[in-house]
Design goal:
- The chain has 287 residues and is an all-alpha fold.
- It folds into three domains: 58-151, Ankyrin repeat-containing domain (Serine Threonine Protein Phosphatase 5, Tetratricopeptide repeat, Alpha Horseshoe); 156-247, Ankyrin repeat-containing domain (Serine Threonine Protein Phosphatase 5, Tetratricopeptide repeat, Alpha Horseshoe); 251-287, Elongin C, Chain C, domain 1.
- It is built from 19 helices and no strands.
- The protein has helices spanning 8-18, 23-28, 32-39, 42-50, 65-71, 75-83, 98-105, 108-116, 130-136, 140-148, 163-169, 173-181, 195-201, 205-213, 228-231, 237-244, 251-263, 267-272, 278-284.
- Helix 3 packs antiparallel against helix 4 (42-50), helix 6 packs parallel to helix 8 and helix 11 runs parallel beside helix 13 (195-201).
- The protein is elongated and about 70 Å long.
Length: 287
């Protein structure tokens, strides 16, 4: 029998269970408002609010109805809750905000509406990070919205590393490419481990080629004294790709890297404002 594809409601329920360490506590004290928000039942949710239900009721794990709406990607429910005073930056006991949950679900619409109501895009390093979660799950649109709202593109978390490192670890090629385009530091990963180390571990030739094209340093060693090449399986495609990039780069590539380094993190915007001939602009932007 062919496997069945889960419905969106089943998927959001599974995601909710995976994000909760104690499901019994999380489900035992849920209110009808939590259920309406989780299931995207807007009319029921508005009816409950009109009856005077507190929109900021939380479970024992401090999960609010807004957390539930965002985890399910139900933007209309999220907006209704926010318009009625829901706490946009409420924290669960695990340090997750509604914005983090929206990034879990990949709902760019929820991310946008939360930001309209004052959601913090960047939290303290010990709290769950929305951009790292968006990158981990490959939700590029959510990631781009956060970056457009001034998230630190190179924020390194003690348990995860930088967004680029996470993207390489989980082989999110689209996210890797966009982060590099927007000026992420190509060698900044997790402690002494670089994004190139992560790509070598995952045997991701496509990611390795992207990183080296943006100037990744093949000679950097991690805390075990190993380079990315040391992590590659002998005679593998990853080893071949790394060996190929050990050759000196072309002069045009060196010039491109130098220009982008001089322009700094805002290189993408700066290049577009220089009024360069279109072929040169496209070359500098890797287009």
């Amino acid at each position: 029998m062919a496997p069945t594809t889960p419905t969106s409601r089943q998927s959001s329920t599974l995601l909710r269970l995976l994000l909760t360490s104690n499901t019994e506590d999380c489900w035992a004290d849920r209110s009808p408002l939590h259920d309406a928000a989780a299931q995207g039942r807007l009319l029921a949710l508005k009816t409950l609010i009109a009856q005077g239900i507190n929109v900021n009721l939380v479970t024992i794990n401090r999960v609010s109805s807004l957390h539930e709406a965002c985890l399910g990607g139900h933007v209309a429910c999220a907006k209704a809750l926010l318009e009625n005073g829901a706490h946009v930056n409420g924290l669960t006991v695990h340090g997750a905000t509604p914005l983090f949950n929206a990034c879990c679900s990949g709902s760019a619409a929820c991310v946008s509406v939360l930001l309209e109501f004052g959601a913090k895009v960047q939290m303290e390093v010990y709290l769950a990070s929305p951009i790292h979660e968006a990158v981990k799950r490959g939700h590029r649109e959510c990631m781009e919205i956060l970056l457009a709202n001034n998230v630190n593109i190179d924020q390194e978390l003690p348990q995860l590393g930088t967004p680029l490192y996470v993207a390489c670890t989980y082989e999110r090629v689209d996210c890797v490419k966009k982060l590099l385009e927007l000026g992420a530091s190509v060698d900044h990963g997790w402690w002494l481990d670089t994004p190139l180390h992560a790509a070598a571990r995952q045997s991701s030739v496509e990611v390795i080629n992207l990183l080296t094209e943006y100037g990744a340093n093949l000679r950097l060693r991690n805390s075990q004294g190993k380079s990315a090449l040391d992590l590659a399986a002998p005679k593998s495609s990853v080893e071949q790709a790394l060996l190929l990039h050990e050759d000196p780069p072309a002069l045009s590539q060196l010039c491109r890297l130098c220009v982008r380094k001089c322009l700094g993190r805002a290189c993408h915007q700066a290049i577009c404002q220089l009024g360069l001939p279109e072929p040169l602009e496209k070359f500098l932007l890797y287009q």
